Batch of 3 targets.
Target 1
Amino acid sequence: MNPRIALLLLCASLLSATQALAKSKTILPDGCGDDSVEFDAKMEKNNPALAVPAEGKALIVFVETIPDTGLYARTTTRFGVDGTWVGATKGDSYFTVTVSPGEHDFCASMQSAPSGMKKTFTQATTLTVEAGKVYYIEAAVDVIGSQKGGIASFDFAQLSEKDGKYRVKAWKFATSKPKN
């Protein structure tokens, strides 16, 4: 066999193997869920009163904050706790979950980004929570570059109680359900 053809076949097979590996399961941080799970999320017209944590539990308020433009209101962000997706937000919105006291892995992953934008990395953090307390965790969307060809990313961080209460008052409550 001609050495050039053999080299070409070897390169083609390596390229195919690399592409197959790239399409295989995405590795996500511990706090996330299965990457194939996606949510339908919407903002409700009326915000319910923020619940008091259930007895012996902590309340987690997940918040998404977006730039001040309608284009990014279509952004959907999934949030996970200890390896399971627990819900999603869409635009400037929030939702809540209760967890047991102790250390938890939290995750946020941009499920969708505006047309023409590239979504970026998933973010994760670990937080030790106490029973009876409320914790606010925000995924703040940021855009680098232009609407066409830019990158949509976010910062994932715990908010102060004051900032968290403001978001709950000013943002919309989000409801979500996994897509079939």
Target 2
Amino acid sequence: MKLSSDKVKKACRRNNLTLGEAIDQAGVSRTAYYSLLRKESVLPRSVLALADFLKIEPGELLERTVRPEIRTRLLLAKLEQIMSRNPPANR
């Protein structure tokens, strides 16, 4: 699977962040981010090899889990969006 700069930027816009803010707050260095963009795949070769052998997409072998701290940050971001649209609302 290849990292899509368009999808990353779109996600940043949805969260009212610049790309720089997003990668800084995520703890990813700019060098690492741009290095990932240049790679044909950001998945380990073993996952790609297994998926290729099984004739399936690599994503079908991966679990999509969201760590609790990430889920909490996502929920807080949604809360902030709601609060900004409804100033008199009580948290």
Target 3
Amino acid sequence: METGNIELTPQQKSVLASLSQETGEPVTTLIDKALEELQEHMHAGGAKVKQGQDHREDAPKPIWEQFAEAFENVPDEELDRLPTDLAANVDHYVYGLPKRTP
């Protein structure tokens, strides 16, 4: 194992010392675990954000994509049963109010 000097801030040293005391694990073990997790995160897509890409894999899909996926397996016969005036008379279909006249 190659050893080298890494300068830590007083705050970083304090955090490591506290974690070591709380967990009972040596500082070197804590650093090893932290580096392993960082490496996994970077390989799992975390590096994309750093590279300037806006898209995150865990970001929610836009509503239109959610609707498209929800209706993928709906048979055409069922879609044909939907009212053709749904947008104009949504209050009637949702709340039971009288239909609007065209």
